[in-house]
Amino acid sequence: MLEIIKAIILGIVEGITEWLPVSSTGHLILVSEFVNLDKSDDFKEMFDVVIQLGAIMAVVVIFWSKIWPFGKKNNPVPYKESGFGSYIKKDIFVMWFKVLAACIPATVVGLLLDGWIDEHLYNPWTVAIALIVFGIAFIVVENWNKNKTPKVNSISNLTYKMAFIIGCFQLLAALFPGTSRSGATIVGALLIGISRTVAAEFTFYLAIPVMFGASLLKIVKFGGSMSGGELAVLLTAMVTAFVVSLFVIKFLMDYIKKHDFKVFGWYRIVLGILVILYFSVIK
């Protein structure tokens, strides 16, 4: 029962921090210092990634009509006027091709360096530095962007070049825990003239193939065999992350219509400083 309670706590942390640009992986590493699962290191390494599937399913549920590329209903750009082609939503297929273009940098580097990153960079010091550096980046970018009019205000206006550039920023999150995948992609999108709303929405879509792929890789490395207790802990955390994410995604989409991201930048800086103090002075 204690392990289930820990899983619920970690699921809540994941559901909140996966979508806010404050780094879910970084928070899970830090929270694990105080809420540590009584499981093997291999399981915990897999858990920290696969738990994110629960959060990803919330994106699928909320944005289903915008990501499912088949159906005659709400199909303003059918592939053909009649026959099977009339059930294909051409604009959504194009959107997914752009998502795939954005996935290329992190996918290539992730496959090549996954083990090295886990061994050398998954630690509180890397997290603290990444929190502070990208916190400063948010503040600087928002100040620089303050009175500028976005060039792109819809997903359909994103070019493949823009999508690839956003993917290169996502690569920073793959390399440095604590950067925040959503934070890195949003900063990159703002820098090239994309509106906050489109940046956040594209980040949500980008998370779907990235996290499914990362989770599959971790499950394969783990070996695919879990005890009943391990499976219960993982599923509990995923379901919790899913439920919490439903509320957090809706909150963020409403929030960014009226506010910028600077508050998250200040939060990151303060948290990063507290992490450094804790691990250098207290622990």
What does this structure look like?
The protein is mainly α. It has one domain. The protein has twelve helices and no strands. α2 runs antiparallel to α7, α7 packs antiparallel against α12 and α9 runs antiparallel to α10. The longest helix has 32 residues. The chain is globular. The two termini are 28 Å apart.
State the distance separating the first and last CA atoms: 28 Å
The largest pleated sheet is described as: none
Q: Kindly state the mean pLDDT as a whole number?
A: 86
Computed structural class: mainly alpha
Please tally the β strands and state the result.
Answer: 0
DSSP strand (E) fraction?
Answer: under 5%
The arrangement of helices and strands along the chain is HHHHHHHHHHHH
Low-confidence stretches: none
Helical content (DSSP H or I, runs of 4+):
over 70%
DSSP summary: helix tally: 12
Radius of gyration, CA atoms, in whole angstroms? 19 Å
The shape is globular
Number of domains: 1
